[in-house]
Amino acid sequence: MSTRCPLLIASVLSPALRVHGELPPQEYAYGFQLYQEDDNRIRVEAEYLRAQVEVNEDTAFRFQYLRDAVSGASPTGVLPGSAQPFYANLEDVRRGILGAVSRQFGDHRAEIEFSRSEEDDYVSRGLAITDTLELNQKNTTLRFGLNYLDDTVLVPGLGDRDKRTTDFFAGVSQLLDSNTVLTANFTLGYAEGYLNDPYKLVQRTDSITLPDGMGGTIEIPIVNVFRENRPDSRFRQVLQLGARHYFEPLNGALDGVFRLSNDSFGVLSQTVQIEWRQAIGKHFEVVPFVRYYRQDEADFFTNTVDAVPGTPSSNPNGSGPNYSADYRLSSFDALSGGLRLSCRITENFSATAAYERYVMDATGGTSGRSPDQAYATADIWTFGIQAAF
Asked: How far apart are CA 107 and CA 245, in angstroms?
């Protein structure tokens, strides 16, 4: 990236800089990620462009543009072997922008962020307010804030549906010594409105009775499919604990994170992530990492609605019996691991590259798991370049 672009952005944000010929601290980053599931299932090509400019010593501006292109096949929720398709092909592009301004007020750093993303059938508008407070000679950092999303879902055949999500979060970071940092974060989230996935189905086996031509009758099984019906509200609680320690003799750091999440859907999950950051000379860092995730199935997860009385609604609104055959709400675990590399090319430029292998497996009893074919295995490739001036 040439110096012309950073200088242009800086001069627009702060005209006084043009007079003095000064250039404020600023950072730029471009990243690309390829997510590819095995057997030519879902493929996601995601890229982003980020920028941050310190207008002055108290005020900073940051911006992000992202684009995700999704294609491939995804499980519908129907059981394999039936007349209805187990996979559905999809193709969509999401584009989003984010802008934020932060300012220092004494020991407080306040930030307000606006975001918007749009795809063919989904529009999301977001607002976030965050405050960061440094105490104890900057050895203790408190952070808390509020996120709000106002989304519109275009449901095929039913029109627009609204969805609103509010998250409150609070966190603390404590420096124990020059080599050790502990963190704790807690989030309370509430979502309401249309929480279904409009493309996920659940099946029911019915039968029709026909005369057999000999005075009797025969029954012929028929598989019908219906839209899923999740509750119209969801309350979740997330606790995340982290620790990092730098080992001077090895010139490396061990970073660990534990995350516990629970929600009103009945989904209890745990995540453990460990990575080792190994510096090699002054310009390279190698980071092997592993992550394990496990969750219980949602209270209303089911592979069929054969036992649900009556006929499921063609326009589910969250009331009545709830049901979903979405494998993401089933009982499963996921293991991923990989390697991330970073290189400082010059004083101003650096680059990163990473590979990760992701594997899902069903757990629990038969009633709480999807068919084995539903769970994904994927390769994830990530590349990025950063510039700081």
From this structure: 26
Separation CA 40–CA 27 (nearest Å): 37
Query: Is pLDDT larger for residue 211 or for residue 101?
Result: 101
Q: Which amino acid is at 153?
A: V
Give the amino acid at 50.
R
Give, in order, the Cα–Cα distances in Å from 364 to each of 203, 243, 248, 333. Answer: 21, 31, 43, 10
Measure the CA–CA gap between 53 and 293, rounded to whole angstroms: 36
Q: Look at residue 341 and give its three-state secondary structure.
A: strand
| 3-state SS class at 106 | coil
> pLDDT-derived band of residue 21, with 50, 70 and 90 as boundaries?
low
Structural tokens at position 28 = 């730029």
- Return the residue matching tokens 């996935």: 197
pLDDT at 28 over 80: yes
Cα gap 52→64, rounded to integer Å: 9
| Cβ contacts of 136 within 8 Å, gap of 6 or more | none
Over the stretch 122-143, which tens digit does the pLDDT of each residue have?
Answer: 999 999 999 999 999 889 999 9
Asked if the model's pLDDT at residue 2 lies above 90, the reply is: no
Q: Which tokens belong to 107?
A: 């020991």
Q: Tens digit of pLDDT for each residue in 110-121?
A: 999 999 999 999
Provide the whole-model pTM.
0.89
Q: Say if CB 37 and CB 44 are below 8 A apart.
A: no
Note the helical H segments in the chain: 4-13, 16-20
Contact present, 288 and 257 (Cβ < 8 Å)? no
Q: For residue 386, count other CB atoms closer than 10 A to its CB.
A: 19
Q: Long-range contacts of range 127-134, CB-CB < 8 Å, 24 or more positions apart?
A: 128/100, 132/108, 133/107, 133/108, 133/109, 134/107, 134/109
How far apart are alpha carbons 385 and 348 in whole angstroms? 11
